[in-house]
Amino acid sequence: MELHQLEYFVAVVETGSFSQAAVRCNITQPSLSQQIINLENELGRKLFNRLGRRITITEAGNLFYPRACSIISDVQQAKYALTDGFKPEVSTLSVGIIPTLGSYLLYQTVSRFQKAYPEATLKIREDMTNNLIDQLMSAELDVAFVSLPIANKHITTEPVFEESLYIAIPETHTLASTSTIEADTLRDIPFIRLSDQDCLSDQLDAFCYVQKIDPPTIYQTSHLSTVIELVRLGIGISLVPACSVQIHSNEGLVFREMSHNPVQRTIVAARHQGREVTLLSTAFSHFLQEAWEDLTQPASRD
Fold first, then answer.
1. 3-state DSSP call for residue 49?
2. CB 127 within 8 A of CB 98
3. Residues 189 and 101 occupy one common structural domain
4. For the segment 280-294, what is each residue's pLDDT rounded down to a tens digit?
């Protein structure tokens, strides 16, 4: 059953004539008549009594007419909703974000988003990268803001910003007096690190592998705020993102870059390859980048 067959049927009912229906639908009468026959064959019922030059609608036709009108109306309304009546700024956006971004950037990002799109519905999930990728694959999320690398071949990524990673040191530590950190000086210093599920843990492992060092891990946690507090207490040092530096500077901590090959991570907007890039997801990405720039560009590293 095709939409144009329903339109031809309704036209015949409303004009009372195959010839007038053909004129109304801008089609030849034989073609219209054949489409009505095809529709009747598919339905297994006659829709019209053909009485010479006269036609009358059958009981089956009377039952079918309001349903055909309803289907045509629904299709027209659906088309309108996606064209003239489509308002992407009123739709829903489901966002995922890793905790080491969300803790520092969500407030400003969401504030700007809500101001720009007050009628949009925003849903946010803060979770580890692997869980967010699973939620992208199951269509629970429209977009997720995570750190590279991402191994899933069905996920596409768009860079949002490059973020430096800093060594967080208690201000009383001997390394606090240096402007940058040599990798060899970290060889025996205890590290406080995030859980293995966190991307920062992977980046610390990659850094240590490249530098050929294996510093001891004295404490492992799932919260960056706990990392910061333990460093402040002098229990160890840690690798933290730039977005945390401005927030925690002048709190008994100093933050130093590595002397050679400074460590960075690439934050991306990740989407399922089959998912549309929407106005709202693009806007959220823009506001996240703005929030990060506002937080990190004026930052003092001491």
1. strand
2. yes
3. no
4. 999 999 999 999 999
